[in-house]
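TL;DR need C-alpha cells for one chain.
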Amino acid sequence: MQKVHSFVGAAPEVRAKSLVLLAAFVSFVISVVLWFGGQHDQGIFVGLWVPSILSLGAVVLPRSER
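>> reply
TL;DR here they are.
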C-alpha cells in the first residue's frame, strides 16, 4: 500500500515514465503468451509494440535536467 501512495504522490514525469515502462512490459508479456499459445503472427505483431511504445515515450516525455 505504501508503494501506491508513493506512486500517486510522485512527480508527473515519474508517473508518466512508469506508465510507459509498464505498457511496454505488458505488451511484451502479452506477446510471449500469444507466441507460446500458438498464435505466432499475433505474438510477433504485439511484440513489435514494445519498441514503438518505448520510442514514443522517449519522444514525448521530457528529459530530466542533466
